[in-house]
Amino acid sequence: MARGPLAGVRVLEFAGIGPGPFCGMLLADMGADVVRVDRAGDADSLAGLICGRGKRSIALDLKNEEGRAAALDLIGASHALIEGYRPGVMERLGLGPEPALQRNPALVYGRMTGWGQEGPLARRAGHDINYIGLSGALAAIGPADQPVAPLNLVGDFGGGALYLALGVVAALWEARASGAGQVVDCAMVDGSASLMTQFYQLHTRGMWGLERGANLLDGGLPYYRTYACADGKWMTVGALEPQFYRNLLAALELDLADFPQDDRSCHERLTAALTERFASRTRDEWAAHFAGIDACVGPVLDLVEAPVHPFNAERANFVELDGGWQPAPAPRFSRTATAVSGGAPQAGQHTDAVFAEWLSSEGPAARAGGNR
């Protein structure tokens, strides 16, 4: 039985890749009954391998009238719908917001795109790097000589999936009072711009420059960056506050009088000193050295090391699922605890069960072209 604060909420997710499935996974982690609509006969659907945990899958042929009618039946029984197609695709299928809200006036209709549903770029192709390039985020990330794509964390998953999840939950809350649904238009360029709010504010106040690698939080300070160790691995240093900075220098046997924290004229010498110190031992030796020192210093772990690190193991920050490690649900709730309810489903695995539970055991599944 589903657990979490969204237990009892029904979400219909139209299969895609990237932020849409991740949003659906977040909702499923929080207890929602997320049913993914896969293409009939697509047993090897890529959607089954991406952020599919905790979901169920049905298979429909949306290119025929019976499949679309079955989808509308399920829309009528849903609390929310999420889709990540290009603008106009759902409308051409006859499953856009107008017919969906006619069938279910309280439906929250979540839409995930890169550029938004309207505007000059709405129908233009794009990827994460393009969206964060336009929002101002990419220009601020990387070394001085080149912007560097920060994985897909800023656009797809941070500016996209997380904002869609928040928007869907907010609209569900409002619908409880009003009885009326609405469309949530989530664009990755919008969300990534929103994530940059603090840096736009700092720039406005003259506290953030346009040059990369020269600011407070972008590696421009010698006491807020990473350093290579003797074994080629890395340590993080984030000693921004004076007390942590003092502890950092003391732990490395450097004299505070030689390196006043706010004296930028000594930063080049300090960077060289820190580089030399950290290069003298392995990462794990430095991690052990700083283990009892409050200096905001720690190891850089890779995707193999992080799940088995003692801290992460004690907090159960990762779960073993589908043949590997996955991050556990976040955040944590004191009363309505979350849990991973299962691995990623195969396309169409739950077609009959979903129709039986959401509607009835007769009719829609038989005429929808789903896997039985």
In words, what does this structure look like?
It is a single chain. With 372 residues, the protein is of the alpha/beta class. The protein has 2 domains: 212 residues, Crotonobetainyl-coa:carnitine coa-transferase, domain 1 (Rossmann fold, 3-Layer(aba) Sandwich), CATH 3.40.50; 85 residues, formyl-coa transferase, domain 3, CATH 3.30.1540.10. Helices cover 35% and strands 15% of the residues. It has 14 helices and 11 strands. The protein has a 6-stranded parallel β-sheet, with helices on both faces. Strand 1, helix 1 and strand 2 form a beta-alpha-beta unit. Helix 1 packs across helix 6. The two termini are 23 Å apart.
What distinguishing features does this structure have?
372 residues, Rossmann fold, formyl-coa transferase, domain 3, 2 domains, 14 helices, 35% helix, elongated, disordered C terminus
Q: Can you give the mean pLDDT?
A: 93
The total count of helices amounts to 14
Distance between the termini: 23 Å
Summing up helix and strand content along with how strands pair, one would put the structural category as: alpha/beta
The largest sheet, given as strand count, sense and whether it forms a barrel, is: 6 strands, parallel
Measured as a percent range, the helix fraction is 25-40%
Classify the beta-strand content into a percent band.
5-15%
Based on Cα principal axes, name the global outline: elongated
